[in-house]
Amino acid sequence: MMGKESVFQRSKQNIAIYCAAIAFVALVREVMPTEGGISIFAGLFNSLAYLGLILIWGYSVMQRIQSKDMRRWLMGVSALMLVWLLMRMVKYRYFEGVIVRYLWYGFYIPLTLIPLFFFFGALCAGRKEQVLSKKWYVLFIPAAVLISGILTNDFHQHAFCFSAGLANWEKDYSYGILYYADSFWIYGLFIAGVCVLFWRSKIPRSRKRIGLPFIWFPIAISYVIYYATGPYFFPRRLLEMPEAYCFIMIGLLETCIQTGLIPSNMGYHHIFMASSVSAQITDQEGKPVFTSKNAVPISDSQRKQTENEAVFIDENTVLKCGAIHGGRVYWTDDVRSINQLNKRLGEIGKNLAGENELLQAESRLVNQRAKTARQIRLYDSITALVTPQLEEIGILVSGLKPESPDFYKNMSHACVLNAYVKRRSNLALLSQKLECLSLDELFLCIRESADYLTQYGILCSVWQKGTCQVSSHRIEQFYEGFESVVEGVLPALTVLLITLGVENGKPFLKLSMEGLNGFLPYTVEGLSMEYQEQDGTAFLKLTGRDGDS
After folding, report:
1. Distance (Å, rounded) from C-alpha 312 to C-alpha 48?
2. Pairing of strands 537-544, 527-534
3. Strand (E) or helix (H) holding 102
4. How far is it, in rounded angstroms, from Cα 373 to Cα 202?
5. Can you say whether the dihedral through the CA atoms of 39, 45, 48, 54 is positive or negative?
6. Which residue, of 55, 174, 282, 326, has the greatest Cβ tally within 10 A?
7. For the segment 117-153, what is each residue's pLDDT rounded down to a tens digit?
8. 38-95 pLDDT, tens digit each
């Protein structure tokens, strides 16, 4: 990571060093002899030096460009330039004859694709996802047509016309319509790419540096004129066409990056240090590298502790840590508002403790009138369902005193009735929301009633054999039937064994009771009842009358 030195100043220094390296390589080529072993070494040195410079620039692009899709296209540009220079390097050193001519034609593969990749990268700028739409891939079709036309030039000579025949192709040729079409393609895509970057850029148009990329077009035209008219001041051209094309392309892209037309990660530390966040970035050794203006002091012990868990610096400030590439970032969260909210909620909670009716009234005010009306009707229906039990509870506890001989018996009886009121009300609410309930829900209701029957003095046991989904209405019928039987025999009942299960895919409820002395079975609405008595024990089985399950 960089220090506090200006990123833009560092970038200008790097560009100056890069340009100086290009000039040095060009001068080495110029001063070296053109014949002999040294010339071979000089040529190889120049080629490898140019390849190295492009590799260095491509690596810098990979480090600086954030958009994955844009980085992919610009890295493709760098790769195509490497391919071009490699083809040029091997053209005369390792091949001869017709292969040399086809390598010359092959130059136009990267030459045609480089502006297309640049244009695709420009289209990724300014988008939220910064991903190229697939519809633009149709441009590969004209590129393939141009490349195919140039590679097959020997058959039609519409790109390069050899008036003296193929034997003298290097010295006597002219340009055809395919060459000019390819040139129009190249310059057109370059200009279109820069224009797209310009119009999609979020940089204010008032900035003077934003127009710098357009300077490279007259530079390119000037070089073409220089190349066509011959070298000046030196016996040979300082840069041949491939090198010049590549480095003009690099200059164009680098200018777009430096002016911000192509988004990069340069200068972000200024934003970080000027932002309102309270944060600090350290290197791997824990030394601070960037610190925002609102950052709080952090001790070494706090940094080490934060690597495992968040640390409270004070009552309202929490220090947190996260690993990043090359180090760690520490930031603080102001939880003052959360603490105030929690304090306020605590006060509200204390004020509302035990005020259940007030909460219900507040909830009714929030809900819509239609929902409120439905709830009122539902509550009325639930009250109607358990009214007999509520009245019985009132009778049992009316005037009851602890010293009364029936105090424990009446209170236990009231608890049995209250358990039914609670569970029956809950079933009514569930049936309004769900058409079917698990048989486990009925088991829970019966088990709670059985617990209070045990307190009443009855020996109770509850078993469940299997489970299934049952209609909510059927669950209510089973529980109502259970309660009506229990209330009818409660004064005499001594032992109650309850079995809830599934038989042939249908639920059933079996009751084994002792102490009834001539119990007569009740009629339970919606349920079939089988009753028999043997040796003083009454056996009662409740099942559904119809096929509902």
Report:
1. 57
2. antiparallel
3. helix 98-106
4. 55
5. negative
6. 282
7. 988 888 887 665 556 788 888 999 999 999 999 999 8
8. 445 455 666 677 777 778 877 877 777 777 788 888 888 888 888 888 887 777 667 7
